[in-house]
Amino acid sequence: MAEKIVKPDQQAADDDQQSPEELFNQLMAEQDALIPPGFAQQVERDLTGNSKIAMTRRLALAYLSTPFKESTEKLAADRELAVAVAHVSDVLKDHAKSYETLLGWIKAAHARMAVSIAIREDMAEILAEAKADSERVRDELHEARFLRGLKKPRK
């Protein structure tokens, strides 16, 4: 039997019709995970490997790295290129839905993590410690990007 994957939009619709206490009790009573074991690894392979969704994303981002006028002129001059770009554009519609679903799962993870932490008596201290650590990491990432010339220095 195939393992059930709960679509995040359905989970959100179910969650919106419950009180916070009912939602908490429902989450605590769950027997199965929201996604099956191995699914996260498959998503990572799809996003980072040579899957169709990864290649299409790369092509879309490459297209955006060219000024619109230049892209349009190239498409006007090259029919084969125009057909290829139209194909990528068509496939992107479906892939955008996949990214929206992934975003829903990420939001579900965020909400579930927050609810899980909320049951701790020392929640405020945990959140403060996490926030301080997150700010340190953000500062380090910003500095690394600045050193590579990708960002302007913070004021």
In N-to-C order, the SSE pattern is: HHHHHHH
Q: Ranges with pLDDT <50 over ≥5 residues?
A: none
Which outline best applies?
Answer: extended
Work out the count of structural domains: 2
Counted beta strands: 0
N/C terminus separation = 57 Å
Helical residue percent band: over 70%
Question: Biggest β-sheet: count, sense, barrel?
Answer: none
Overall mean confidence score, pLDDT: 84
Quaternary structure: single chain
* Number of discrete helical segments: 7
Rg (CA only): 22 Å
User: What structural class do the secondary elements suggest?
Assistant: mainly alpha
Percentage of residues in DSSP E strands: under 5%
Write up this protein.
- By secondary structure, this protein is an all-alpha fold.
- It folds into two domains: 36-119; 120-155.
- The protein is 75% helix and 0% strand.
- The chain is built from seven helices and no strands.
- It has helices at residues 8-16, 20-29, 39-48, 52-64, 68-77, 79-118, 123-147.
- α1 (8-16) crosses α6, α4 crosses α6 and α5 packs across α6 (79-118).
- It is extended.
- The model has no long low-confidence stretch (mean pLDDT 84).
Structure summary:
This protein has 155 residues and is an all-alpha fold. It has helices at residues 8-16, 20-29, 39-48, 52-64, 68-77, 79-118, 123-147. It is extended.
List keywords for this structure.
2 domains
Which SSEs are present, and which pair or pack?
Blueprint: H1 8-16, H2 20-29, H3 39-48, H4 52-64, H5 68-77, H6 79-118, H7 123-147
Helix pairs in contact: 1-6, 4-6, 5-6
